[in-house]
Design a protein that fits this description.
By secondary structure, this protein is of the alpha/beta class. The chain folds into 2 domains: about 270 residues, 3-Layer(aba) Sandwich (Rossmann fold), CATH 3.40.50.300; about 250 residues, Class I glutamine amidotransferase (GATase) domain (Rossmann fold). It is about 35% helix and about 20% strand. It has a 9-stranded mixed β-sheet, sandwiched between helices. Strands 5-2-6-1-7-10-11 form a 7-stranded parallel β-sheet, with helices on both faces. Strands 18-19-22 form a 3-stranded mixed β-sheet. The protein binds glutamine (GLN). The site of glutamine (GLN) has 10 residues, from strand 21.
């Protein structure tokens, strides 16, 4: 038997947290004993998110199989505790590329290729390709009803809905108008009308709201959007995104969805999740972490989602350790201008991934401060590379040591482009060509990292072109830097650490991508632990 489909479509505004809603619905249905996966549709022309600027797109999520995608896939993994593969992200670019390639190889038998049915069919095929042995496939359509860009995807899901058991969930926004002291449902009514224009009737509406939605407003939405009473599910802004599945459960959302398919829950398994949310709410011991990045400020605003997986991994660790987490993002150029004095009341510092020169000197200063003052430090990818540079400059006396990413003529290129990447960059073949996805590392005996992971062989996800330069390994080791994890052939340095320090660890990988709410990253957990002693 094929899978059942749940389509999640947005109305009124983008940025409402459709990804969290999709993940939360998935979590509830999973807790009822069903196998669930999720797909994200991104209506942009890009093949993937890998070539997009972080300030514009936010974090690029990396899948186990090396996809560079929208961060919503991260939410699905964090909530559902599963690996979501590349094929679960569909973009307009991918669809058109295949249709055009097919046309070029006479795949349409001499007739003209058309948006309807060929593009629509391609979308349907790609959605159905993830079905496998899943009971439910939740499909989140990016963008908002009424957008030119996502129209073709709406046509596709309408058609798919005719062929498969499916329901439609519309996520909207309810503004509160101060002048009349009222929550206004009109934009939601318009969004539902726009969806009906494409031939899609919502089964449920989830109106996002900054406050609780009262009964008269719920009634109005069900009356004027023609949906069953009881199928308006409220979703006010909560203290934690991880509390959303619990709020949905209170409203029997999962059971109502199952009922639509004529199904019932097989088990009920949300206890662990509930306890972790309780931990977040009842934790009192504070831990204050600074994330030092290049992409913190954009224009006049602070970017909330450039380092989202790092934030979430820290939250997971704290939920398990019952600690009250405070995160502050610090623009690394600020440290260049004002020095490290501003770091003095932090319990730990994370230097996350990044690209390019700007702000790197600030990161290096911050790392030196952590190393010299026994402040827990976790370096992720670029953060590890910066730590190697800092060590080379300040301990090994290699003045001006750098990465060739930022200084082609440095006397000490301690970080250098991987040989196989040179040609790629010269030919400007930049899309999907970094060292991407899950990579195995062999951890050295008697090191902190080996103890943390509890295994000799581990795997984390990667996304980079540069590496520790093998020429300098011996010198760095002689000066006390420990390369505690290497690639299986021993050529690539995957982890560094220094002894006699509370916690000073860097990794070429991105362990934040494998951290889940119910199963935190061991590295993040240990880092946070060390911040409390
Ligand atoms: N810019 C560095 C590289 O390409 C680090 C990348 C990252 O932090 N993801 O190697």
């Amino acid at each position: 038997m094929g899978a059942k489909y749940i389509f999640v479509i947005g109305g009124v505004l983008s940025g409402l947290g459709k990804g969290i809603i999709t993940s939360s619905i998935g979590k509830i249905i999973q807790s009822y004993g069903y196998k669930v996966t999720a797909i994200k549709i991104d209506p942009y022309i890009n093949i993937d998110a890998g070539t997009m600027r972080p300030t514009e797109h936010g974090e690029v999520w990396v899948t186990e199989d090396g996809g560079e995608f929208d961060q919503d896939l991260g939410n699905y993994e964090r909530f559902l505790g599963i690996n979501i593969p590349k094929k679960n992200n569909i973009t307009t670019g991918q669809i058109y590329l295949s249709v055009i390639q097919r046309e070029r190889s006479l795949g349409y038998n001499g007739r003209n290729a058309e948006v309807i049915p060929d593009v629509v069919n391609e979308i349907k095929d790609r959605i159905r390709a993830v079905e496998e042995d899943n009971d439910f496939v939740i499909v989140e359509v990016g963008g908002t009803t009424g957008d030119i860009q996502n129209l073709i995807f709406l046509h596709a899901i309408r058609e798919l809905g005719k062929e498969t058991p499916s329901i439609n969930i519309l996520v909207t926004y309810i503004p509160f108008l101060d002048t009349v002291g009222e929550l206004k449902t009109k934009p939601t009514q318009h969004a539902a009308a726009q969806l009906r224009e494409v031939g899609i009737m919502p089964d449920f509406i989830v109106p996002r709201c900054d406050r609780r939605l009262d009964q008269p407003r719920k009634d109005k939405i069900s009356n004027l959007c023609f949906i069953e009473r009881g199928n308006v599910i409220e979703d006010p802004t909560l203290d934690s995104i991880y509390a959303v599945p619990l709020l949905f459960k209170e409203q029997n959302f999962g059971e109502k969805i199952l009922k639509k398919f004529g199904m019932e829950k097989k088990t009920e398994d949300l206890e662990n999740w509930k306890n972790l949310v309780e931990n977040i709410r009842n934790s009192d011991k504070k831990v204050k972490i600074g994330i030092i990045g290049k992409y913190v400020i954009y224009g006049d605003q602070e970017h909330k989602d450039v380092y989202i997986s790092v934030h979430e991994a820290l939250k997971h660790a704290c939920a398990h350790l019952k600690l009250n987490l405070e995160i502050k993002q610090i623009q690394s150029t600020e440290i260049e201008n004002r020095g490290t004095e501003m770091l003095k009341d932090y319990d730990g510092i994370v230097v996350p991934g990044g690209f390019g020169f700007e702000g790197t000197e600030g990161k290096i200063k911050a790392i030196k401060y952590c190393r010299e003052n026994n402040i827990p430090f976790l370096g992720l990818c670029y953060g590890m590379q910066m730590a190697v540079i800092e060590y080379a400059r300040n301990i090994c006396g290699m003045e001006g040591a750098n990465t060739t990413e930022n200084d082609k003529n440095t006397k000490y290129p301690v970080i250098d482009i991987m040989p196989e990447q040179k040609e790629i960059v010269e030919k400007e073949k930049m899309g999907a060509t970094m060292r991407l996805g899950a990579c195995t590392a062999i951890l050295k005996k008697d090191t902190k990292v080996r103890k943390i992971y509890g295994n000799e062989e581990i795997s984390e996800r990667h996304r980079h072109r540069y590496e520790v330069n093998p020429k300098y390994i011996e010198k760095l080791e002689d000066a006390g830097l420990i390369f505690s994890g290497k690639s299986p052939n021993g050529k690539l340095m995957e982890f560094i650490e220094i002894p006699n320090h509370k916690f000073f660890v860097g990794t070429q990988g991105h362990p934040e991508f494998k951290s889940r709410f119910e199963n935190p990253s061991p590295l993040f957990k240990e880092f946070i632990k060390s911040c409390t002693i």
